[in-house]
Amino acid sequence: MALKKIVMTTVVAGTIGLGFLWTSFAQSDDHDHSTHSHDHSKLVSLPAGADAPSIGIEIVKDPVGGWNLHIITTNFQFAPEAVNQHHQAGQGHAHIYVNGKKLARVYGPWFHIGSLPKGNVEVKVTLNSNDHSGLAVGEKALAATMNVVAE
Fold first, then answer.
1. Distance between CA atoms of 148 and 89, rounded to whole angstroms?
2. Which of 42, 45, 46, 38 has its CA nearest to residue 131?
């Protein structure tokens, strides 16, 4: 799988900065399944090629407070109306993790994170199918990670 851009970037509180990381790796599952039956450990493998989805993220300190997360995708459509339904190629939602703990499910390309723990923080975003399975190209899960230094 050819990745479009790989740049490790750290954003320091008080400065405005942009960073991209286009990558993929396995996702974690730290979510209570007692009330529903989807399986985050399952990966839906999509074929590599020009039509394969990709993900990148930008995190920018919001001047009023918190952080603005921009989820940049190609060949992927956020589909909130189809959540909990069967897998449809090229659509779904994202999951946001902060230091390995799930923060939110996201149905669009922008998300405001109100606060982050102090210090070096890892923010990870995964692309997921409508049925909550992780999306992958080949066997590599579609995810992007970025480190932020929060003060």
1. 32
2. 38
Write the CB contacts of 2 (distance below 8 Å, at least 6 apart in sequence). none
Taking the whole predicted model, whether its pTM rises above 0.85 is answered as no
- Whether 113 contacts 98, CB under 8 Å: yes
* C-alpha 69 chain-centroid distance: 10
If 0-12 CB within 10 Å is exposed, 13-18 middle and 19+ buried, where does residue 73 land? buried
Distances (CA, A) of 135 to 51, 55, 63, 150: 14, 11, 33, 29
- Give the pLDDT confidence of 30-75 residue by residue, as tens digits: 444 333 444 446 889 999 999 999 999 999 999 999 999 999 999 9
Under a CB-based contact definition with an 8 Å cutoff, are residues 71 and 125 in contact? yes
Non-local CB neighbours of 142 within 8 Å, separated by 6+ positions: 24, 53, 54, 55, 126, 127, 134, 135, 136
Residue 141: band (very low, low, confident or very high) from pLDDT cuts 50, 70, 90: very high
Q: Return the domain boundaries, the chain.
A: 10-30+39-150
